[in-house]
Design goal:
By secondary structure, this protein is α+β, with helices and mostly antiparallel strands. It has 17 helices and 5 strands. Strands 2-1-3-4-5 form a 5-stranded mixed β-sheet, sandwiched between helices.
């Protein structure tokens, strides 16, 4: 069920923002679309330093464009910082980018001492130290979000942390992974392992690994848990531990990892399965190039389909929670790529740092790190700039 949030006043709106983001923002400017009927639409967050930096004008225009596309009738700006002057400067830049559309904006500052409307000269309405922050914890929206099980992490990094599965579950996953790695056709250990699975047995092993992925994602999409024998596992967050172990091993094989990546791109048809199976390279190259263009090329780039991305992220996250050592690298890198494709460079960087700490030579992680270091956004974002 999707809850429709209506902005009945600034207190309710400010109470809602951390729940929407999943964490308490710091030194950030948050922009909130308010659509007709006071419905809350797009909520976006950007670091104050980025808006005030040399690329700030372009970033402000990009944010403004997203709010116009979102159908905002007005935009509320919320600065989370004790640096009130920086909030004012960032808000001024964004207001200039918005221009006369989508309408008049208002700016609020939430500091460590209280919250107030920027520029409000009424001491009774907005005392210099701000209204008490406790006001934001006792709203109707806050109560609703708590009843729905929503939680707010103390920081952005903490909201991205992947909790480790219990010791028993990780042991179960490890045992299942070892059995999967010992099956006929499994790649040999080491960097060249992906190329050592030729032949019918290798094709069967890779295809089985990819089919395990497809079943896991289908289970996550429909809210069921995928157990080893296909029955439900009520104790698993998303996957039964043996399935997580099998996937951790399967994803160390490059063709399987690439097949998983291709399965996330709209319109790829049987390309992902053929990639896992190991069809003749020439029959796959054109389709793979087109699929990757859908992610990186501004001329053909498309935004990710959240109906596909959400269950995939849930499965990959659970694999990371159960895996150990370098078995975590492939799922962490895929999570980084999905975060980047969704426009979340901060989370992408964090996942890449975790992956490269385990394997500094991982090729896909290094390619993605280069794109992030160069400030290259995904294709669909560049198309809107």
């Amino acid at each position: 069920m999707t809850t429709t949030i209506r902005a009945r006043g600034p207190q309710e709106l400010l109470s809602y923002v951390p729940y929407r983001l999943g964490f308490e923002p710091r030194d950030s400017l948050v922009t909130v679309s308010v659509r007709e009927g006071r419905r809350v639409g797009l909520v976006a967050r950007v670091d104050l330093d980025d808006l005030l930096g040399r690329d700030g004008e372009r970033l402000a225009r990009l944010l403004a464009g997203h709010h116009v596309t979102d159908g905002a009738s007005r935009v509320v700006l919320v600065g989370y910082s004790d640096r009130a002057d920086d909030v004012a400067a960032a808000a001024e830049a964004l207001t200039a980018a918005l221009g006369s559309a989508p309408g008049a904006q208002e700016t609020w500052v939430v500091s460590s001492r209280g919250y107030r409307e920027l520029g409000c000269a009424d001491g009774d309405c907005c005392p210099p130290e701000g209204r008490p922050l406790t006001d934001l914890q006792s709203t109707e929206i806050s109560a609703t979000m708590v009843l729905e099980g929503a939680a707010v992490a103390p920081s952005r990094a903490e909201s991205f942390r992947i909790p480790t599965a219990s010791t028993d579950r990780r042991r179960s996953a490890l045992r299942a992974g070892r059995r999967w790695a010992s099956r006929d056709g499994a790649p040999t250990a080491g960097p060249a392992g992906a190329a050592a699975t030729d032949g019918t047995a290798g094709a069967r092993w890779r295809t089985a690994g990819y089919e395990t992925w497809c079943a896991a994602v289908a289970g996550a999409r429909h809210g069921s848990h995928v157990a080893r024998d296909g029955t439900s596992d009520a104790d698993a967050a998303v996957l039964a531990a043996p399935v997580a172990g099998r996937l951790a091993v399967a994803l160390t094989c490059v063709p399987v990892r690439d097949a998983v990546l291709l399965s996330l791109v709209p319109g790829t048809g049987d390309l992902a399965r053929e990639t896992a199976r190991g069809a003749t390279r020439g029959t796959l190259d054109a389709g793979t190039a087109a699929a990757m263009a859908a992610i990186v090329d501004p001329a053909r780039g498309v935004p990710p389909d959240q109906r596909v991305v959400r269950p995939a992220v849930a499965v990959l996250t659970d694999v990371v929670a159960h895996a150990t050592g370098t078995a975590r690298v492939a799922p962490l890198t895929l999570l980084a790529l999905l975060a980047w494709w969704c426009g979340d460079g901060g989370q992408a960087n964090l996942r890449l740092e975790e992956a490269l700490a385990l394997d500094p030579e991982h090729r896909l992680a290094l390619l993605l790190e280069s794109a992030l270091a160069a400030g290259v956004p995904p294709g669909w974002v560049r198309a809107q700039q």
